[in-house]
Amino acid sequence: MLPSLRRKLEVLAERREELERLLADPGTLADAERFRALSREFAQLEPVATALSAEARAQRDLAAAQAMRADPELRELAEEEIATAGKRLQELESELMAHLLAKDPRDEGNLYLEVRAGTGGDEAAIFAGDLFRMYARYAERQGWKLEVESASPGEHGGYKEIVARVEGRGAYSRLKFESGTHRVQRVPETESQGRIHTSAATVAIIAEDSSDVAIEINPADLRIDTFRSSGAGGQHVNKTDSAIRITHVPSGVVVENQTERSQHANRDKAMKRLKAMLVEAETSRREAAQAQDRKLQVGSGDRSQRIRTYNYPQGRITDHRVEGLTLYDLPNVLDGNLDALVERLAREHQADELARLGKE
């Protein structure tokens, strides 16, 4: 590990010791808000201290094993212990470097999920519906809450477009690499000749938490339209123009909400999503300027980028951003079992960031 990186770890360890003293101070205990803030920071730094302690133990084990090599009777055992300690030190170094990576403040927050049919006509809309169900089932398995905010059904099933809000701790961190174009290869039900067709749908994952980026929205830049809600909701949806469509004229971003019974409630929800989308666009612009070689686009990223192919005849899923990331488990993944993909993408992203940190 580079000396500069080692020093950064030492600074974190020193800060953790300082926090320990502050948390024991009566003045801190008397200030509930400050105590909570310092407790959160202490909890974030605790894994660093634990890993440094483990590294120190492994280094002592390595030194003891190396000393044993001088004894012919213990040399074989010493070599085994040296190998074990060396491997452990390599693992701990990777773990410690991971602690140096900047934490994305959006990771623990909620998100907006947007799925839109792309090329392929009716089959693309059906595939968009399949993707949305996949994410909805994954959210259910994670214990997250999913609420549809607007939807435009396809003529023969699925969706031309569907937007939902996903609420749950860590939701954004788990799904932030899903943005992009998803391609499907299968025989449509309407295909009489049994030919395989290729269709596509786009997915956008937009963080709801935008506290780290300031965006000012000028009311004069907004065009607000009302219309009648469609879909579930009983007779009410046919009687009042309660649905809201907001267009941000400078950027061309359009958001809709039709899930609430009042214009006011729908407008509030639409404005929250509009702000999230504008922040996401600004964040993506900054990240693209800083990392041209990024393999895994975060957030909305480049929606024209083909990121994944779902091949039904072979039961195969291939993620094109990571070499060798192919799973022959299509039905299981479409049923919402996304962990194998999500965790591999997270590891790949961490490896890229660690490589960049080492260069810096």
UniProtKB/TrEMBL annotation:
It is found in: Cytoplasm. Residues 228-244 form the Prokaryotic-type class I peptide chain release factors domain. The keyword Cytoplasm applies. Its main location: cytoplasm. The modification N5-methylglutamine is found at Q235. The keyword tRNA processing does not apply. Peptide chain release factor 1 directs the termination of translation in response to the peptide chain termination codons UAG and UAA. This is Peptide chain release factor 1. It comes from Cognatiluteimonas sedimenti. The gene is prfA.
